[in-house]
Amino acid sequence: MILLLRVDHRLLHGQTAIAWVKNMGADCVLVADDEAATDELQVTLLRLAKPQGVKLVIKTIADSIVSLNEGVTDQYKLFIVTGSVDGAKRLADGYSGITQVNLGGVKPREGAINISRAVFLMPEEIAMLEELVARGIEVESRLIPKDRKNYFKSTAET
User: pLDDT tens, 118-136?
Assistant: First the structure.
């Protein structure tokens, strides 16, 4: 069962490893990120950040989609973290069980629009999220679980 899909460029850190995992009662964290899955140093750092007693799986986006569709993760209370909006969109496109996306941290870049405290989106990322919302997927931003959900709205609505 997927508890949440979170976009956070930092992947697994204090907020995700402690606040989110504990609050949701997740017993498995899937880091679905092409760069992290292919970088040995990043894999080592993610393993060090993993909460004790929680399974950690690190896969590329494509391999994550295969595992989700094959039901390999069905036995877990799964918290998925990806490093980008593109990653979240690809996961939602490849697996119909994604019902909500939390925007936790998208770093500032030139040309990005600040939509919340720690989320800076490029126009193409906004378009991706608008597509997810149009498909009925809840998109919201908050840093920690106790924060109020800020629902993503189309730039046309703001």
Answer: 999 999 999 999 999 999 9
